[in-house]
Amino acid sequence: QVQFVESGGGLVQSGGSLSLSCVFAGSISSIFVMAWYRQAPGKQRELVARITHTGTTYYPDSVKGRFTISRDNAKNTLYLQMNNLKAEDTAAYYCFPQGGSWGQGTQVTVSS
Questions:
Q1: Which of 41, 49, 53, 75 is deepest in the core (most CB within 10 A)?
Q2: pLDDT value at position 62?
Q3: pLDDT at 1
Q4: Are 20 and 8 in contact (CB under 8 A)?
Q5: Distance from CA of residue 68 to its chain's centroid?
Q6: In which residue ranges of the chain is pLDDT below 50?
């Protein structure tokens, strides 16, 4: 089972930025797809960014142009750079590697 730890969440004002990290215990070079999801209270978990092993990315319209997903295979780390944050981005954010399981998540709170 793939082990990892998410970090980087916090409280930020609307329009601010945060950078999330997901550090894996082992190599991620063989993981084809990795993603970030989020879940706000009372809502379903939703995909916010996805990246393949070749660097192909996908973003839903809600975050496109504001969020950037990246991966550093040498550091076994997945990142999510979030800019121009909005109150509706408030949620627990989860890293999810293909074939993996859900971690503890990291809380992002955006004050308006």
A1: 49
A2: 97
A3: 75
A4: yes
A5: 9
A6: none
Assigned token pair, 22: 């997901």
pLDDT at 50: 98
Measured in whole angstroms, how far is the alpha carbon of residue 27 from the centre of its chain?
18
| Chain centre to alpha carbon of residue 8 | 10
The SS3 call for residue 87 is helix
Count CB neighbours of 84 within 10 A: 13
Q: Is 92 left (phi over 0), alpha (psi -120 to 50) or beta?
A: beta
Distance, CA of 62 to CA of 98 (rounded, Å): 23
User: Which pLDDT does position 32 carry in this prediction?
Assistant: 94
Tokens 């990892």 identify what position?
4
**84 and 67 in contact (C-beta within 8 Å)?**
no
What DSSP element (H or E) covers 105? Answer: none
d(C-alpha 104, C-alpha 110), whole Å? 19
- Per-residue pLDDT tens over the stretch 87-108: 999 999 999 998 888 999 999 9
